[in-house]
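TOPIC: backbone geometry
CONTENTS: sequence, structure tokens:
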Amino acid sequence: MSGRLSFIVGLVLLGFLGLIPVLSVAFEDPFLLTLFTRIVIMAIAAVSLNLILGYGGMVSFGHAAYIGVGGYTVGILAFHGVHAAWIQWPLAVIISGIVAALIGLLSLRTKGIFFIMITLALSQLVYYLGNGAFAYGGDDGLNIMKRSDFGGLLNLDNRPTFYYLCWVILLATVYFVHRTVNSRFGMVLQGAKSNDRRMATIGFPVHRYQLTAFVLAGMICGLAGVLTATFTGFISPAMMHWSRSGDLIVMVVLGGMGSLFGPVFGTVAFLLLEEVLSSWTEYWKIVFGPILVLVVLFARGGIDGAMVRGQAGALLAGLAAFFLLYGVHSAYEDEWLIPTLILVAACALAWVAKWAIDRKGARHD
């Protein structure tokens, strides 16, 4: 029943995302469409990461590199006068897959912290290649003067049209990942996450399955990079910095690893919190950090896991606490210290309460 709740909430959320252009017009708020376009694009990248992190157990700390590869492919082709989307987009996805294959061939020979460090190092290598591409702006980045051309089929300069294109791609990505992880391929991938030696002993070529998943995730993330470059009309090495990869991991963990809609939940929550908290203070991560700690302590499995375990009430309580905090901030206008101290105090009380409950339970045992 709780699993069905998570599924229903996920479908409702995707339906709500489909109504954003209408709501943007109804509330006369163009920024709403801009914000949710970014959310939908990042959700695609998070869903791709979930394929290898949530279902495959591969903690890649360089996933944002593929966003940069996809974006730079579009930007470089546009710089040389190639604007046809039928050339730009497939080529960007293919090159992202090739880069993912090269990184996967090297990193998948290791495990644990070594795998994390190698993916981080190789992604930073790609980042510095972008930094050194002075012909295309180097560290300053490159403006894309003309968006991808679909030959009159789609006008990407029309913001609602571009948004719905991103939304349809998100739906297709979620469906593709769902079918993939429930196929024979996906079962082997999840089995390797639990015990790769046993799967290899049975006779499955585990390394080949993991590499295939790694390449698929890179290609999907590269497509998210294409959408990012088309949306912003700008590319820069910052797109593939390691901190962006960290953000993607937080989105997946926050929403729920190894779940169908978890990355979408996490992306929406992360970027909405970022938008609201950054309007309070440039030190918004001081506030966001304790919120993430609360999720780890009380909602293991993320937002999706909380719903599966029947903790929807706790999620609603957390949402109510956030809006209460937002109200306190509004009352103090530009003062950010007082709301931050209130949140830190609330986190401390929550931790003490959890410690007391766990200690009491240990005594009874």
Remarks:
- The mean pLDDT is 86.
- The two ends are 30 Å apart (CA to CA).
